[in-house]
Fold this sequence. Notes:
The structure holds two protein chains of two kinds.
Chain A: H1 3-34, H2 41-59, H3 63-84, H4 97-118, E1 133-136, E2 139-142, H5 143-165, H6 167-177, H7 179-184, H8 189-214, H9 223-236, H10 241-261, H11 267-281, H12 285-296
Antiparallel strand pairs in A: 1-2
Chain B: H1 13-33, H2 42-64, H3 72-88, H4 94-116, H5 121-140, E1 151-152, E2 156-157, E3 160-161, H6 166-188, H7 191-201, H8 203-208, H9 213-239, E4 241-242, H10 244-247, H11 250-263, H12 270-288, H13 293-307, H14 311-324
Antiparallel strand pairs in B: 1-4, 2-3
Helix pairs in contact in B: 1-6, 2-6, 2-7, 2-9, 2-11, 2-12, 3-4, 3-9, 4-9, 6-9, 7-9, 11-12, 11-14
Amino acid sequence: xxxxxxxxxxxxxxxxxxxxxxxxxxxxxxxxxxxxxxxxxxxxxxxxxxxxxxxxxxxxxxxxxxxxxxxxxxxxxxxxxxxxxxxxxxxxxxxxxxxxxxxxxxxxxxxxxxxxxxxxxxxxxxxxxxxxxxxxxxxxxxxxxxxxxxxxxxxxxxxxxxxxxxxxxxxxxxxxxxxxxxxxxxxxxxxxxxxxxxxxxxxxxxxxxxxxxxxxxxxxxxxxxxxxxxxxxxxxxxxxxxxxxxxxxxxxxxxxxxxxxxxxxxxxxxxxxxxxxxxxxxxxxxxxxxxxxxxxx
Amino acid sequence: xxxxxxxxxxxxxxxxxxxxxxxxxxxxxxxxxxxxxxxxxxxxxxxxxxxxxxxxxxxxxxxxxxxxxxxxxxxxxxxxxxxxxxxxxxxxxxxxxxxxxxxxxxxxxxxxxxxxxxxxxxxxxxxxxxxxxxxxxxxxxxxxxxxxxxxxxxxxxxxxxxxxxxxxxxxxxxxxxxxxxxxxxxxxxxxxxxxxxxxxxxxxxxxxxxxxxxxxxxxxxxxxxxxxxxxxxxxxxxxxxxxxxxxxxxxxxxxxxxxxxxxxxxxxxxxxxxxxxxxxxxxxxxxxxxxxxxxxxxxxxxxxxxxxxxxxxxxxxxxxxxxxxxxxxxxxxxxxxxxx
Lengths: 297, 340
């Protein structure tokens, strides 16, 4: 493997990490504020992909623009789902079994909606962008991957800005760190849960919509990505927003480079084993490792 | 959340155990006589019994001990493959092969459980999703047993292919089901079962009164895996063809989890009701309306969580209480906020 190959793989990992971050950050928001592991994440990603597909085929909206449209639509959808189902769950400072099962049931229903509406055929979105490439010195980059990466990074940067600079963001971080102290200073937890659930689903929809430009999809589309999101947020330490980006990068690197050494068929097995290993060895995530080092020095 | 309140029990445990055992004996006797009567679709009953056995097994770990696993298809698949290979390659007697399948699945459950039971609640659940997918991918690439294209089961008797006798397949499944039911009743009314319940309600408190949570969880898991493995073995012999996309499918793990939740967690009869409903609905509905079964189970799950966490059994108890105006009798019903 020459230097150019390694460089190409590194760039590919970075591009992959961008979309992985967008896909997982919605789970982190919901987990952080509500301590709910959103198993329905995959379902919303799948709906996001079909949303773009529909607006592209029916209205001729460009898929990237469609992905941006998906964000507000899924924000409202998320709030509606919260109002209808999630708010009835018992409040807890730990993930509870009912929440896991409720959202799992929702995933099944969403999947069924997908099958009922679009059948089980693979769909894909093909535009001028799909096969276009740009050459950057010795590197060849796919245009669609670059565009998706850019949108993903912008969305995450905007989220970071909102989390650090707005009242809403501070409330989200406060509830993530200590829900009781948050309530003491007058944060309306019910309203915050609704908003953050909406925001989490909005990111799921956006991620699914962006992924639709890269891969073909069917109603079972989100499952491998749901598992990847688990790996990422566990690597990232579940509650840390910067940890998510780190986790995404680690998973992207592992996936991209493992293809060189392990048969492609086993690639998924490596990601999922990474999940189990991460859960066991690094319960606080990579971010905690860095924090710990920062504290001791 | 607070621990689940236990229902007041007016009968001593031995009486309820005897009642459950009597009911179980009647059920098994009726099932065993069916092949000699005019009624009963043996194929439908066979599949239903497989599902019900898995449902009972999952309830030991997910219901009593409160450890939600999304990975039971692993044990089902390992049981199926073990029995298939033993029957086809080593010409082992099929019943010994089922026992081998149970042992192999129990051994696999230790491999899965020893690392993952260090995790609590939802983290365990997530890890099992990862394990299920990882094992399926590995089996999809394992050339020795045909990889993704599957494995054909060849049962030879005296140099010839054994004839297919539906009644024999069915009766062997009745036996496995009876064992599962017996195990479930014994666990429900034993010290071991109480320890599992204590672990579910509060693992730290259980540890304080001297329960080794890790060992108890491993034991329950191994017991459950053995039952699921035997059921998988019976399926492999019946179907005569298995593939990783079929037996190791994540959807199997999902179904195995749904049945006891819908029927009633941590009860003896809940998983059986759930399994029977599931088996019959699966065979009757999927044939006709394959488009709605996922949504149906999803909706049932959502409704159960929001309105009746005790499942069908909880609902029946509630109706009974409303009709008789008496306080409910019987075992513990998981409360709304069962701690994961």
